[in-house]
Amino acid sequence: MLWSQALQAHFGAAGPQLLLLDLDGTLIDSVPDLTTAVDAMLAGLKRPLAGAENVSHWIGNGADALIRRALCRGDETAAQALPAADVQPARALFDVAYLQALHQATGAYAGVAEFLHNLQQAGVPMVLITNKPRLFTLPLLESLGWLELFALVLCADDLAEKKPSPLPLLHACAQQQVAPAQALMIGDSRNDMQAAQAAGIACAAVTYGYNHGADIADSAPDWVVDNLLQLLA
Ligand SMILES: O=C(O)COP(=O)(O)O
Ligand SMILES: [Mg+2]
């Protein structure tokens, strides 16, 4: 038996037929390299540096949202109101710095490699759904040796909407010809949980990722684990 009893109780003995996986904070700890890039950007703009703890709270809604929050020191209202003309030069600095830092300190969390290997062996299709732009996602996947793992990779800029919209999740189900009720989303943030719930997809949350400083249990995931291997038998 591949899946944990809890998942079998929900999906039946065969388990989920499609896995939708978040990247940052679920499969990889990317905050160290993201912090390097955010702080390089802020230094270039002669602003005070952010540090890893702030970055871990600001990540989750894509690169532009991260930059907006960094420019406004986490003030969400100010961040959203920031004119695009203020974001663009900062984004250019961030892009250069993050492409350089990308996989310097970034690695997979405990259990992830074994979990992905087991699912690949079992032939369960996996789709990566990340709010990270494609520009960074593909080289990162390549450096991790994960490019071949996924039947499909959906990044922040691939569709009209990103998480917390259910759109990328529903797109993945349609493309893989699996009903949402037979799919499982795994993520670390409320964006993943909200997207899954809006799509009618069961969701498992990991406790070790980034969730804007909040407890992921507040987002009512169907299961909470602190290692992906807990989802397996
Ligand atoms: O880039 C982000 O903001 C978050 O990316 P994720 O969706 O893979 O967690
Ligand atoms: Mg995430």
From TrEMBL:
Entry EC number(s): 3.1.3.18
InterPro entries, alphabetized: HAD-like_hydrolase_sf, HAD-like_sf, HAD-SF_hydro_IA, HAD_sf, PGP-like_dom2, PGPase_prok
Similarity comment: family membership: Belongs to the HAD-like hydrolase superfamily. CbbY/CbbZ/Gph/YieH family.
Keyword Transferase: no
Gene3D superfamilies: HAD superfamily/HAD-like, Putative phosphatase, domain 2
Keywords assigned by UniProt, alphabetized: Carbohydrate metabolism, Hydrolase, Magnesium, Metal-binding
Name of protein: Phosphoglycolate phosphatase
Record GO biological process: carbohydrate metabolic process; DNA repair; glycolate biosynthetic process
Classification via HAMAP family: GPH_hydrolase_bact
Alphabetical list of Pfam families matching this protein: Hydrolase
Cofactors that this protein relies on: Mg(2+)
Pathway: Organic acid metabolism; glycolate biosynthesis; glycolate from 2-phosphoglycolate: step 1/1
Sample GO molecular function, one term: metal ion binding
Upper classification of the organism: Bacteria, Pseudomonadati, Pseudomonadota, Gammaproteobacteria, Oceanospirillales
Catalytic residues identified in the record: 22
GO cellular component: cytosol
Record NCBIfam families: HAD-SF-IA-v1, HAD-SF-IA-v3, PGP_bact, PRK13222.1-2
Chain positions recorded as Mg(2+) binding sites: 22, 24, 188
Catalysis: reaction(s): 2-phosphoglycolate + H2O = glycolate + phosphate
Function: Specifically catalyzes the dephosphorylation of 2-phosphoglycolate. Is involved in the dissimilation of the intracellular 2-phosphoglycolate formed during the DNA repair of 3'-phosphoglycolate ends, a major class of DNA lesions induced by oxidative stress.
